[in-house]
Amino acid sequence: LAMHYTADTSLAFPSVAHICRDVNNGWLLRNLHANGASFFFICIYLHIGRGLYYGSFIYKETWNIGVILLFLVMATAFMGYVLPWGQMSFWGATVITNLLSAAPYVGTSLVQWIWGGFSVDNATLTRFFSFHSILPFLIAGTSMIHLLSF
């Protein structure tokens, strides 16, 4: 997927169409990537529910690392959500990133840094593509810490 994707606002959606139409089994890769991520979220929610049911929140260090892990997975999913649509996901991306503006002192600066300005442009898509590729490694490391923190 990464070899055929173009992080450009005018070419992002056509590059995804190219992956689905012209790349061997590209449609399968795209669907496995999207549906696998959705199933991963279902597993995470079940894991959180089990932790709530059995009182695992008592183990504060493990629970807090799990919360950080959930936020990392959500950030990775958000970055991946914006990528194929380019400018078309402007509304959804605005709503989600504006949640960050509620953070005291750093919220507005954080939103402007993530966006790379005030709108989705090529720099934003390139940044999101990089984060979407790097964050899974951070998630893997945090998962190991989560497992070892009990």
Automatic annotation (TrEMBL):
Query: Which lineage ranks, top first, belong to the organism behind this chain?
Result: Eukaryota, Metazoa, Chordata, Craniata, Vertebrata
Q: Does the keyword Electron transport apply?
A: yes
Where is it mainly found? mitochondrion
Name this protein carries in UniProt = Cytochrome b
Which branch of life, at top level? Answer: Eukaryota
What is this protein's function per UniProt? Component of the ubiquinol-cytochrome c reductase complex (complex III or cytochrome b-c1 complex) that is part of the mitochondrial respiratory chain. The b-c1 complex mediates electron transfer from ubiquinol to cytochrome c. Contributes to the generation of a proton gradient across the mitochondrial membrane that is then used for ATP synthesis.
- Please name the PANTHER family in this protein's record: CYTOCHROME B
Q: Which GO molecular function annotations are given, in alphabetical order?
A: metal ion binding; oxidoreductase activity; quinol-cytochrome-c reductase activity
Q: Where are the transmembrane segments?
A: 32-53, 65-84, 90-116, 128-148
